[in-house]
Design a protein that fits this description.
The chain is mainly α. It has seven helices and no strands. Helix 3 packs across helix 7 and helix 4 crosses helix 7. The longest helix is centred in the middle third of the chain and has 15 residues.
């Protein structure tokens, strides 16, 4: 993701197209897209995926970094976020943004 000033939606589109290819199914998936927009755009409608991403972010802020190195994403999702459904890249988006210092 570039650090130029743009909207969160523009950043998602640009980054997703660079990573996955223009028009690819991965660049259009709503779960990671809404997770991304949920944590970066305060005016984004809070879909369930945005809410999931914000829950992950809150846990990241409260727990030591080592806690995330010792547990799989699926275990984190199930045990720390308390979700019984399978995560659909919301964790990946938040962890990527967190590790790069964007959030």
């Amino acid at each position: 993701m570039r650090k130029e000033k743009c909207s969160a939606l523009e950043a998602w589109i640009t980054t997703a197209e660079e990573l996955f290819g223009v028009g690819s199914s991965n660049s259009k998936k709503s779960c990671p897209k809404h997770a991304f927009l949920g944590v970066l755009d305060p005016y984004h409608k809070k879909s369930k995926n945005a809410v999931y991403a914000l829950e992950v972010l809150e846990k990241l802020k409260k727990e030591p970094k080592e806690a995330f190195e010792e547990i799989s994403k699926a275990e984190f999702w199930r045990e720390r976020i308390k979700k019984t459904i399978q995560h659909n890249s919301q964790i990946d988006v938040v962890l990527a943004l967190w590790s790069k210092g964007y959030i």
